[in-house]
Amino acid sequence: MDLCARARDWSEIQERMLVPLYEAVYERLEVGPGTRLLGLGCGSGLALLMAASRGAAVTGVESCPERMALARQRLLPEAWDTRARADARLVGSSPPEATGAQATGAQTPGAQTPAYTLVTSFEPIGCLAGDSEGLGEALGAATPLAERGAPVVLVGWGPPERCTTSSVLRVATKLADPLRGTGSWRPALRDDLEEVAQRAGLRPDGSGRVACPFGYADVDSAVRGLLSTGLFDAAIAATDRAQVDKEVTEALHPHLRRDGTVWMPNVFRYLIARVP
């Protein structure tokens, strides 16, 4: 699998599908110039860029080097036209220390980084067995760096009956059956987010649902976008890429419109929890 091509598919096709969610969360939490945001699993940086455009100081954590490279391209200070966007940092697989995280722009050596006022994890959980465990570890490292009472935003897939894409994701379960376990797709559960928050010692303080339809220019774009999520990795390991492409394409046919585009309405849920 070409990891660079997959990261580009994520950045150019799939990442934008959750823009309504990012906007809803930022509006509800009044993200702006006073916000110091830590984004866990920041992907190729679209959600960070949106927060930075509101004036927030942003720090992103991303373990995928290929997505990280694309995030750096988006967040290079010389590409921005406002000073507010220059206050951005990107680090690797673990949350940055309160001092001295690697930055996209110039930083004063040894300068103290203020405690974060908002932590986000926008990569939806609840569809892969074991995904909540990884998130719990990331939260355990991140929340000590946040202010007391700071909101932590967790995101999950909505009920399968409200997510049209669930019918396509079931292909992953069928093909990955020999490897069922961590990494295989499963239907989202109602209390997935609350359970993660509880294990991380966070206090739930509100939630919301946001419609995030998945729209693609054609079937090929839909296949590439969906496979870039990683939700089909176990299926590919159990069979091969060609077989997964074929079956996902077939599963997309009910969602194909007359003009050749693909449209799948979905609902995602977010939970706001507070650092004790």
From TrEMBL:
Annotated Low complexity bias: 95-111
One of the protein's GO biological processes: methylation
Keyword Phosphoprotein: no
Region annotation Disordered: where it falls in the sequence: 91-111
SUPFAM superfamilies: S-adenosyl-L-methionine-dependent methyltransferases
Keyword list, A-Z: Methyltransferase, Transferase
GO molecular function, one term: methyltransferase activity
Family annotation (InterPro entries): SAM-dependent_MTases_sf
Protein name (database record): Methyltransferase type 11
